[in-house]
Amino acid sequence: MGRRKLLLAALFCLVLAMLPYHTVTVAVMSVDLGSEWMKMAIVKPGVPMEIVLNKESRRKTPTVVCLKENERLFGDSALGVSVKNPRTVYRHLQSILGKKQNNPQVALYQKRFPEHQLQEDPVRGTVYFKNSEEMQYTPEELLGMMLNYSRALAQDFAEQPIKDAVITIPAFFNQAERRAVLQAAQMAGLKVLQLINDNTAVALNYGVFRRKDIDNTAKNVMFYDMGSGSTTATIVTYQTVKTKESGTQPQLQIRGVGFDRGLGGFEMDLRLRDHLAKLFNEQKKSKKDVRENHRAMAKLLKEAQRLKTVLSANVDFMAQVEGLMDDIDFKAKVTRTAFEELCADLFERVPRPVQDALSAAEMKLDEIEQVILVGGSTRVPKVQEVLLKAVAKEELGKNINADEAAAMGAVYQAAALSKAFKVKPFLVRDAAVFPIQVEFTRETEEEGVKTLKHNKRILFQRMAPYPQRKVITFNRYSDDFAFDINYGDLSFLSQDDLSVFGSLNLTTVKLSGVGSSFQKHTDAESKGIKAHFNMDESGVLLLDRVESVFETIVEEIEEESTLTKLGNTISTLFGGGSAEPAPNVTEPVQDEEEVPPESGKDDKDEAQKDEAAKEKQDNSEKSASEEKNQEKTEESGSKTDAKEENDGEKSGSVEPEKELEKKAKPQKKTKISEDITVELVINDISDPTADDVTSSQKKLQDLTDRDLAKQEREKTLNSLEAFIFETQDKLYQDDYQLVVSEEEKEQISAKLTEASEWMDEDGYTATTKQLREKLSQLKSLCKDMFFRVEERRKWPDRLAALESMLNTSSFFLRSAKLIPEDDQIFTEVELNMLEKVINETTMWKNETMAEQEKRSPKERPILLSKDIESKLALLDREVNYLLNKAKFAKPKAKAKAKNSTSSDKSSKANSTAEEKVILPTEESTDTKSESPEEVQPGDAPPTEESTGHIDSDSQSQPTEERTTTGPVEKAQQENHIEDEL
């Protein structure tokens, strides 16, 4: 027993020792990763959701990185270089993430940024930037650099390390693009809690701050988000729902998403840039075409971005660029009308995402209560004008921070996912924009003719909620086989979107070990090959495992039968049953759901059942209300379907108790599962190998180390420069001239001049170590001089404090000695000790100051500030000891005088026990018996004890009143009764 206690104590100490470490690094962050800007937000203990300020104290940072031969810049610094040397600056990388070299999006990027050289990766087929043989970077590596920079900014702002983050991405990102962002975060050493769609993050932010307005009535809101690179319209339903875990909570459900990948503010900037280039060429101030000069076009792009912002508030503006090309200045007037004509076809595309979102949600405009604007490009007046007509509303909602809503929503989700914070639950049901299905081919025989039949099983419909798990069962395979995971019907996409989308085939899954599992369990009944899929919180589809399932029948003992029934009853209680479904009840999305299996006796029936299964799943995703009702009915419905199809599956269904009793047999079915070996062949974009990831991480870490080393060198260089200049100036200040001799001054001055000359010649190429050594030598040389000056500056305050303390201590000592002997609380030893300390301190002060006056200021002082402080501390300790003793000391008890009324009163006021001893007189007792509260006949009169008890409990009367005579007390009680009446 003792050993166990010792072990528990050791474990408790270990936990306590670990606690500070965990509490230090609990901050989490979010990154709203836009194509032009990124915004970061943090949550840390004591600091709620807050936007991170960058080094320029701005709330948003350009998503730009500049890579020179020996320098790396981010944000505004990198953007400044883009005008001088655009070839070294990389931006708008989102559009080429997860894209192969032959993708139209890559060609468009090359057209927009012709200064970059894009090469094809021979293994993956993706692209990378080649600046030189030594400088080659993939889009994922460049994005990883930006994520690492965003974390550095967040850590500086939070003043503690941060590892966990939620990153926003466009809702239309497919599987390859989502994996690319996760790879970039992995290279940056960032742990991604979740990739959250930016429209979902905005909707969460909107709902969190309007929690009180959400009730059990569904409210549909559309968010129209036009950013720099793309436009997304999202329909969100807000409603309170009941959950098993946390009761009634608000929920947002993504109902419909429409998007336009190429409609955004950046395309408007490019058109304005080209318009300005055309105007410059028309002025014919130069024979060269400005469009062939990358540097000049970068200047025009910067001016075009400023011009678009100004034209949102003004009808015209004068664009001007100094020294655009060949030292020629450019100046031209641009009107808002001309801008709107340039982008007329873009404005025509504004309503399309709205229509697509309504189509996906199967809603009408009348069902949308409000349309809210998000994103910087919605500030363009023409965009708002066209959108207002398209949605047929009186006005557009602008009651959300268009720039920061996504970052704030994402950081709320980060806090909810982190174990370090407790936030109010807000349920989020995101939706998969692109359907995903499983395809496989098997051999069928019809009238003696064997044919191959292609089958499809839909895993996730369009707008299916996630995170969610699905199980698909293959019933007709007894040997190794393969199946494909592909995108489903994408007919809702335009031809342009399809060409940009990439490969429609995701993964080929090759299974091995199926045949051997059947050979191993020949006596058991096969229940098929089950593949378990999971679409996680980030919207990434994963194949968790594949298993071969068998069922055998074993004899059952009656006692076990009772336990089984009890277990079934318990499972009914916890798993559902046939109870009436409560309104607005949501089921856990993560529960595994059985996809209707492929089965049937003949091909015609099978085909009909395939269609029925598809229609059933199509209908199950139509609306929120239908989905919620079907989640209850599917449990019994899927059981009936499975029974008809003879597949023997009972996925997630619970039979009524009556049926169980009817079917109860003295036999028990046992499930056996055998894991199947899985080989995945990725068909869209192959993931980088482990070696590639390690190499990229090392490359990024080397760049980070180089940046840190450079910063350290610059810091040391600046410190050395500052020390030289400041010390040279100090040598001529009065404080320093007083304490330094001519010889010492000349020596220091010569060394400073020598260091300054060395700085001009070799200092700017010197290593950090050499700079530190030079600074250390100079500091060592000047140390004595600085010490003498510093001591003389500290003397006045320290000596004044010591003098004040001596006076206070002496006064206290004299007062303590005047206390009469009978009341004295201090011992003679204590008083003598204080007197000794006072005398010794006074003597030390006088002698040391006298000795110091004899010394020259140029010598090392004998009066030191640290000695004064130690004397002060000693005096303070002695006086405080006596003060504390006086504070808690109790006065000595005195002999009680006979027949003393005052002593009776004082002792009664100070002691409750004495109050109970002093009993009321007969007169006061008689007075109380005459009060209106009469004693009924037959009741015993109150005893002296009870009377005393009432007096002691009565807190409304002062203590002295209890000793008053009867008539006075009677008068007071009578007045009290009259007041009550």
The CATH C-level name of the largest domain is: Alpha Beta
Give the N-terminus to C-terminus distance in angstroms: 69 Å
CATH superfamily of the largest domain: ATPase, nucleotide binding domain
Low-confidence stretches: 1-23, 559-567, 569-589, 598-663, 897-981
Short description, anyone?
The protein is an alpha+beta fold and 981 residues long. The chain has 30 helices and 30 strands. A hairpin with a 5-residue loop joins strand 9 and strand 10.
Describe the model.
With 981 residues, the chain is an alpha+beta fold. It has 30 helices and 30 strands. It folds into five domains: 319 residues, Nucleotidyltransferase, domain 5, CATH 3.30.420.40; 84 residues, ATPase, substrate binding domain, subdomain 4 (Actin, Chain A, domain 4, Alpha-Beta Complex), CATH 3.90.640; 120 residues, Substrate Binding Domain Of DNAk, Chain A, domain 1 (Sandwich); 72 residues, Substrate Binding Domain Of Dnak, Chain:A, Domain 2 (Up-down Bundle); 95 residues, no CATH class. Pfam families: HSP70 (PF00012). It comes from Seriola dumerili. InterPro entries: ATPase_NBD, Heat_shock_70_CS, HSP70_C_sf, HSP70_peptide-bd_sf, Hsp_70_fam.
